[in-house]
């Protein structure tokens, strides 16, 4: 596997995505943070707290605190004011690096074009990568595979009727990234709403695990998402959102059905802004995005069970 950089907006499912990676033995080479679920500052604090809980030392670089156009939105109504649903935090945590995330991405990816490609896992708004691509378009060649959680393929948005949160938070950046010709694996919102664990399965998965430390942290995250799902009438379940993208990156063999397509992002102001329009026939542009539709639930649950049992 290539070295991995994770770009994240520090919410509850972002935390699960990092637990999924590190708990399965895959520590990112670096993490870049971005505004989104919560402010850039809170997202960065959350990532540092997660790494301290997992006892993983990973350099963290702060990135954009707002989209290219317009003001930053947030999703505190989903993730809580602190972005982690009130999950327990460790006493101590490290500090972020001094270098800006966009400078880090640009230099790291430019160097990768001369050595070996780096994989990216994007689980927040795409502002940092869009800015790096504008600063140095050639750095796209340093990317092996770009994994993105974002977008909708059947027009059922979550933040608006038309758009998914990560793309809606910065549609221009999504458009820049998705038209850069990078080999991309996209996990859209609809796929996330099809992959879940029931409350009973979660109780079984956590049975016998410590209620403190990393397992206790994961339990708090899961309980928060379970409450979210119930409050939205989905029943007693936990959806896999950002950790579904982690799982697909960890084990691409779990992908059962996927479609290659071209994607266009609606940029006009109004009800469709941020909508991702999928063109399987490639009429809009060459199709270079592999859209994941379904994965093997057994393999997904196995990665989840192993990750929550991780207690460094
Ligand atoms: C995406 O939006 C955020 O709230 C989640 O962390 C996820 O990355 C889902 O639309
Ligand atoms: Ca996220």
Automatic annotation (TrEMBL):
It comes from the Bacteria. Residues 4-300 form the Inosine/uridine-preferring nucleoside hydrolase domain. It holds the Pfam family IU_nuc_hydro. One of its GO terms (molecular function) is hydrolase activity. Keywords: Hydrolase. SUPFAM superfamilies: Nucleoside hydrolase. Coiled coil: none annotated. This is Nucleoside hydrolase. It comes from Rhizobium alvei.
